[in-house]
């Protein structure tokens, strides 16, 4: 029995896929920072990278083209 994988609309967008890969890369690289930088700069970079992906997801949830265009 094959299982269907549910995907949200934004997961099919090329920009979302690139943002996900970039987000993963930022997380991996920031973990290599020295301890002090990990907690300050690293944390800020990780939050910024995640924000890009969540903005794409949020924008894809809107119905009108004008609202989607802003995201």
Give a nutshell description of this structure.
The chain is an all-alpha fold. It is built from three helices and no strands.
Verbal overview:
By secondary structure, the chain is an all-alpha fold. The protein has one domain (11-70). It has helices at residues 14-30, 35-60, 65-70. It is elongated, with a radius of gyration of 15 Å. The termini are far apart. The mean pLDDT is 80.
Low-confidence stretches: none
Radius of gyration: 15 Å
Overall pLDDT: 80
Secondary-structure element order, N to C: HHH
Helical stretch count? Answer: 3
Query: Helix/strand/pairing class, anyone?
Result: mainly alpha
Approximate shape: elongated
Distance from N terminus to C terminus (CA atoms, Å) equals: 38 Å
Strand-residue fraction? Answer: under 5%
Main sheet properties: none
* Count of spatially separate domains: 1
Find the count of extended strands (DSSP E, 2+ residues): 0
Q: Specify the helix fraction band.
A: 55-70%
Notable traits:
71 residues; mainly alpha; 69% helix; elongated
What is the element layout, followed by pairings?
Blueprint: H1 14-30, H2 35-60, H3 65-70
